[in-house]
Amino acid sequence: MNSTDPENPDEEGRTEPKDAETLIEEHEAQLNELLADVEGADAPEAESHLPGLGSGVTRRDVMKAGAAVGVAGGLAGCAGTGAFGNATTDTESSSGDVPDHKVPPGEHDEYYGFWSGGHGGDIRVYGIPSMRQLTRIPVFNREGAKGYGYDDETDEMLEEAGGYTWGDSHHPSLSETDGKYDGEYIFVNDKANGRVARVNLTYFETDAIVDIPNVQSVHGCCIQSPNTEYVFANSEFRTPVPNDGRDVNSPDEYASLFTAIDPDSMDVLWQVEVDGQLDIVDSDKDGRWVLSSSYNDEEGVEVEEMTRDDRDDVKAFDVPAIQELVDAGEYEEVNGVPVIDGTKSSPNNQGDNPIVRYIPTPKSPHCVEVTPDGNYGMVAGKLSPTVSIIDIEKLATADDPADTIVGQPKVGLGPLHTTYDDRGHAYTSLFIDSQVVKWDIEEAVTADKGSEEPILGKIDVHYNPGHIQAVQAMSTEPQGDWLVALNKLSKDRFLPVGPVFPDNDQLIYIGNDKDDETGGMELVADHPVYPEPHDAIFAHKDKIEPARTWDPADYEGEKEFVTEENSRVERVDDSTVEVYASVKRSEYGLRDFTVQEGDEVTLTITNIEGSQDIVHGLAIPEYDVNLALAPQDTRQFTFTADEPGVYWAYCTFFCSALHLEMRSRMIVEPAD
Ligand code: CUK
Ligand code: CUA
After folding, report:
1. What is the distance in A from the centroid of ligand 1 to the CA of 640?
2. Domains of the chain, each with CATH number or no CATH
C-alpha cells in the first residue's frame, strides 16, 4: 500500500510503485512536520552536498532528513558555520596528543567493550582502543561455534525461556558493587520476546534467561546502582495485561509495565503499571530513583497518534517505596507476579510521596542516561533538538515534576543518546545531523533553556549515530579517553558487500579539551560491524577476570567429570543408554561405542585437559550433535539413535597434529 500511488490505480486496482526520490521526499516531509523547533533559534541554510562523497551525492542520499529545518553546524566538516557559535573555551586544554589506538601484535587492549548484537541476539566482545573483536557470546541465538544451544543445558535454558530461535539484544548492563563494575555479570534485554538474560563473566557464557510475564517487548534494561540489587526491564509495546485475548480492540486498556528482577535468582519480583509507555531506563547512583524515557504517551497505535503531542512523560520510579507496597501486599497478582498500580490516578501516586513521578519532556524523547556523579538524568529529545536535564535530587522534593528539569541545551537535530567523560562534559549523538556534540553539563544547567552556549564542539560521524558510549561512562568511574559512535549507516565507507551494508562503529578520542570546532574530539578509526549492535559498555581490563579453564567444582553434583579410566557405556534400561567419555589431544576415552537402534542416548563428555586454550569438540554427523568443550568442562547431549549405521564422531577444534585422526565410532546396531 505505502509504496504505490493511490491516485492512479490500474484496471486491476494496482497502483504504480513510487520512485525512490518520491519516497525520500515523503520521509523528509513527514520528519520535518514532526521536528519540534526551539523558539528563537534560526535555522541555517541546508547544505546540498556532503563532503567526501563527490558532487553527485546529495544529502538525501545519506538520509539526512530535515532540509527545511536546517542542519546545525552545516555539513562541511561542521566547521565555522556559526550555527553553534559562541563555543565556549575549555580552560583545561591539554597538549592535543592522541594516543595510538593501534595495539601492537601480542599486546593487549586497555579496555573490554561489550556490544549488544541487536537482532543477532548475541553480545560481541571487543578490545578498546584497537576495536579488534575478541569473541562473541551467544545469548538469545544458537551458535554452532560455541556449541551454545546444542548441549542439553543451554538447549533446555533456551527452550524454557520460550523456545524462540532468536532475540534482539539492545542494552547490556554490567553488574556493580559500590557503583563500580565488579566484573561478575552482564544483563541484557531481548526486545523481540520480552526477556532478560544474564551472562556470567567468569566463563563469558549466558547462564540464565527469564521470560518476563505480562509483557511483550523488553527494551530498556539496566541494573540498579550502586550494588545491583535489582535488574530493571521496561516493556516498550503496550498490550492488554494479561495479553490473553481480552481487550484486543481497546487500545486504551493496553499497558506498559516496569519490571524488577532479582539478579541472583533471575526471578521476576514485581511490576508497576504506568500510564503512557515505557522505553529506555537508567538507575540513579543511590538505589532510589530509576528513570524511564518514553515516546508515545499518547497511547497511540499508529505513528500519527504516537507523535501527536509535544510532550511525553519521563517516569521516575521510587524503588524503595514500591518495594514497601509489595512487602505490604498492596498489589494485584497477574500470572504469578505482583503488579502495582503506578498510573497517575492510582492512590499510590496521590499525596506527597508518589511512587511514580511523571515529568513532561519534549518530544518523543529517545533515552535517559544518568551522569557518573548521579546528579542528573539526561533525556535526549529525538524530535526536539534539545536534551532535558533532570535534577535527580529534586525528584523527592519538587512540588511540580516539571521543576525537576533544570536545563535544556539546544544540541542539534535528532539527539538520541548521551555519554560522559571524567571532566564534566556530556556527549550526545545526533542521528539526523550525523554528528556527536560535546557540551558542558554545569553550563547547561545555568544557561537559559534552548541555549547553544553550553555547546563545546561537534564532530561529523558516518552516518546516523544511535548510541554513543565513552569508557566506563555508565559507572561512577568514567575514564574520559575513548568514545565509540555506533553509526547505523556506513554508506560508502567500506568495500561494497552487497545490499546489506555493515554498520560503522567509529572510535573517537575525547581526552583533549580544545577550543576548536570539535571541542578537541578526534576521529581515529572506522570499524565495520555486522548488523546490528545498539549499545555497548566498556570496562577497564582490570575489572574483568575471566577463567582460563573451567573449575569442575562449579558443576559438581550436576554433571560427572569423566576421566579416561571411567569412560564407559551404561545401559540404563531397554531403551536408554548413557555414554561417558573423556577427551584430550588426540583421543576420546572411548574409541567406539555401540547402541541399539531406537535407544535414547545421553553423551557425557569431559575435556580433561588442564592447559588453557585447548578446546575440543564432539560432533556426530547426521545426528546434529555438536559439543564444544573448554578445558575441564563437561557437556551433555541427548538424542535418539533412530538410524542404524556407523557414525564417525570427530573433533571440531583443530587441536593437535593428530586432530584429523581424533575420532570415535558410534555404531548403531539395527533393531531386529
Ligand atoms: S535504542 Cu537502538 S539506537 Cu534500543 Cu538504545 Cu537508541
Ligand atoms: Cu580435539 Cu581436534
Report:
1. 43
2. 4-75 (no CATH), 556-669 (2.60.40.420)
